[in-house]
Hints:
Elements: H1 2-15, H2 31-34, H3 37-41, H4 43-56, H5 60-63, H6 67-80, E1 82-86, E2 89-93, E3 103-104, E4 110-117, E5 133-140, E6 151-152, H7 162-172, H8 183-189, H9 193-222, H10 227-246, H11 255-268, H12 274-289
Parallel strand pairs: 3-6
Antiparallel strand pairs: 1-2, 4-5
Helix pairs in contact: 1-4, 1-6, 4-6, 9-10, 10-11, 11-12
Amino acid sequence: QPIVSAARVAAVVINAGHEKATRVLEPRPGREYAEHPVRAERLNELTHGRKLVRKEGANVHIATLEDEDIERLLLAITINAQGVSGGGRTHQGLFPEYGAMANHSSRPNLLLRGDIAMPPVDESGGPVRGNGELQLVLQAVCDVEAGSELTVSYLGELYLPFAERDEQLREIYGFPADRRASDAGLEAMAPGKQAEGEAIQRLIAANSQASDAWDKAADLQAAGAPQDAIRKHRVISAARYADVLNANLLAETHSWRYNATWRLASLLTQDDEPKSCAQALILWESAVRS
């Protein structure tokens, strides 16, 4: 769950004594947090996350914080944390000075990516000591005129239609999407309401079949059933969860898509086949981003 990941990051930030440094991030303490449009919708989620933080990081720093301070930090992490890859791993990081200061645009001129800055080589020729530092790299993707605002995309995919961009941005960040010149043409090419309704019904059926097969496989395994019977239901579950993802009807943050992503990744790694594991890695990274 995203709030669990946010709670882990929050515990690390607080335990290191860096909570004050995050107060420049949106939403800032006080009225801005109290009136933030996303706060009310996620109040139960933030309460759960705050309990996890107090459980994971019971120390002097956490003891000095009010419940509202921790819940604000969780919301700030949810809104501002950057998922970056480096050194063969995916990390979650907060970059208050630069990364979190860039506004969103559907036509961004910057790309954010992670990098691991390795420590300098020992001049004596000895082994390199210490871990590399995680850095956020802001890379221009087009020519930028002097005085222009530097912007990034807060969404994982730039090709999403306006309706999906708008839904995700309102749900996660509390503001609407900006329109692109190409949106009108893409909407005109979109399938009609009847076709869309049929696609949604197929999606619902696939998700239900996948979940039933997943539960049946788990029940059979708990009962000590033959592996062939268990594998049969795992194959059905994997195929139907692939249908859910391939339908491309769900926002990246939708619970069904998140569930289908990590369950399909788990199923692909059951037999330790290299090709399947490579496919599962892509799914795991997608689940982490969401």
